[in-house]
Design a protein that fits this description.
Blueprint: H1 3-30, H2 53-80, H3 87-101, H4 124-127, H5 129-153, H6 158-178
Helix pairs in contact: 2-3, 2-6, 3-5, 5-6
Length: 181
């Protein structure tokens, strides 16, 4: 597969993902019932923002990691020998993971470190940010290497398995250090 086709494929996947997110958001918004008008003389509360910036960042982060996990799980099954290697499926999953890892650099803004209890990110993400960014960069590099290996191997070779293992170890290493259990 040539590099131009891979770029086009990523762009199509990105466009599809953006369209899906917007469609879901608009659908959810359009399904909310309009509020009844207030009774005469009733005091109406001041509207509050629907979602804080911190909450939004955490929700995006969770969504990205859920999608990475769901696309990586089948690769782990191939690695363990619990599933066969299907070139089209493996390529699709790796392409998705590669795209999603590109979103992670923006998934940890400073604002998402405070005020929101529903996050599994430890405060060490921000207090030891240089190490966290290095782990994130290593993860992205290993995913890119997995893409390259899969482009040439096209089967569950030892090289493919080593590349999948490297990505899995990046996940585990970061979770062990920067994720609340």
């Amino acid at each position: 597969m040539n590099k131009t086709w891979t770029t086009v494929n990523r762009m199509a996947t990105t466009g599809g993902a953006v369209f899906l997110i917007l469609a879901l958001a608009l659908s959810a918004h359009s399904q909310t019932a309009p509020a009844d008008p207030p009774a005469a003389g009733a005091v109406t509360p001041t509207p509050t923002p629907a979602v804080s910036a911190a909450r939004q960042a955490i929700d995006v982060r969770k969504a990205v990691y859920t999608l990475i996990q769901n696309n990586f799980r089948p690769l782990g099954e191939v690695l363990k020998g619990n599933a066969g290697y299907d070139a089209a499926d493996v390529q699709k999953q790796i392409t998705r993971i590669a795209f999603l890892t590109g979103l992670l650099g923006e998934a940890f803004p400073d604002i998402s470190n405070v005020g929101e209890p529903d996050t599994k990110a430890k405060s060490d993400v921000w207090s030891n940010h240089a190490d966290f960014v290095q782990k994130l960069n290593d993860f992205q590099l290993h995913v890119a290497k997995l893409e390259q290996v899969n482009a040439t191997e096209k089967s569950a070779t030892d090289t493919f398995k080593a590349a999948v293992t490297a990505v899995a170890q990046d996940c585990k290493g970061c979770h062990d250090t920067y994720r609340v259990k």
